[in-house]
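Re: the multi-chain job from yesterday

Posting the exact lines I submitted so nobody has to dig through the queue logs.
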Amino acid sequence: MSIKVSNLTKYYGDYLAVDNISFEVNKGDILGFLGPNGAGKSTTMKIITTYLPPTSGKIDVDGLDVEDNSLDVRRKFGYLPEQNPLYTDMYVYEYLDYIAALDGVPQEKVVQKRNEMIRVCGLEEMKGKIIGELSKGFKQRVGLAQAMINNPEILILDEPTSGLDPNQIIEIRNLIKKLGKEKTVILSTHILSEVQATCNRVIIINKGKIVADGSPQELQSRSKGQSIVTLEVKNNCDKNALTSQLKTIRNVNKVEFVKDTDDSFIYNIYGEKGIDLREVISNKVMEQRATLLSMQAKQSSLEDIFRDLTK
Amino acid sequence: MKNIKTIYLKELKSYFNSPVAYIVIIVFLVIVGWFFTNGFFQSNYATLRSMFDMVPFVFLFFIPAITMRSFSEEKKQGTIELLLTKPVQDYELVVGKFLAALVLTLITLLPTVIYLVAVIYLGSVDPGPIIGGYLGLILMAAVYIGIGILASSLTENQVIAFIVSFVVIFALFMMGKFLVQVSPTLVSAVEYISTDYHYTNISRGVIDSRNLIYYFSMIFLTIFLTKMSLESRKW
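And the result, structure tokens for all chains:
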């Protein structure tokens, strides 16, 4: 089960939403589409799901062209659009039965399938409620149940965890990971930790173009890479003197004054990749007779890469 | 066919799940009942004439009220994206919704059979105009539903859908009543487009293929245009 996108371009009128992108997704992949708002993530998904046609380019789902064999392609995937498509006046079970019937689940299996989805998505207690009365998290689960009811080989989820509380986010992520073992999953998000937590592959997209493609680890190692030390000192010292002293340390590229709290100054100090600056910094702080409150070294995160690439 | 049935059943059910269906049915019956009984006892003939004259006017409001949600609400809630990415043909969606609205209209017309029973009880009835009258009403309703659904597919705003379908239906209906002001060369064309002209013919009890062709071509045209309007996202 594979999706092959080749030279996909999409214009809305004069506006270029997707600019000649190509990629391939295979079974077992959980692909995270990462990008700022308006980068073209949703548009790409809408084209893969046959909702919108591409301006040019081609998408094959398991060898079937999305434009020529649109109905056959639609049987292969489950799709959760960004705006969760729920009928708020229907009961949960009633909605899922309707979707199952539209998806071509044989009539005698509809109830069984629906109950299975209700169990998988943890909706047992909500089954007999009106959708409009559910909390956002449960609505999102109904949306996921809807996407999976025909047991599709491909799941396409547009911002599946948006608007959920932290507990619900973790639950949905675990659910996606579990499903990803036997399916192909494409999900979009602008939350970086989500990609790190769920995906085994990331495509970063910006202004319609792919700017990076690889596993989260690969992307991290590919980054320009700096070591960053966050330093907090008590504010009874001379701020300017300390700043200029820190700048004189070898291998330090940049000293950034972050903020001034009630009783301390906080700095970010950027140095060459792979060099631990903590010892030198603490010596400098001593020399200035400042009081060291805390110091923390961190690796450049996916977040920094993302910011570098999409700025 | 299976998809049409699924969509039709869901749509019909959702009319009755909300207060919309009950309100329109009750209002319809109250208005029609009032006008029927008034006209009936004044004219002193055993016909349903006064009802058949009245219902087309009630339909002007009634049909747009039941069709205004059909696609505009799907667009507004985003469910249209769900439906159009399921293995369902666009026309199946339109026909399913069309049939649900038509059946709701039939259910609304059903209680008027009481008037028929009363009339049969009170005098001898000529069956032609009765059969023709009901057939004419149903066909006219079908055309209006087609127009209403088309209007609803053009906007995500129910109020706009209501107003647009009302204006179009009103124009089509009233055209036939203002033939005097139309230039003589156009009279027969305008007359042919007007729903009222065909309804008047059929409700006399004369069921002519000319009238049937008009109604069925209007129904197909509106369904086809709605399908086009759904596809317009691809243009």
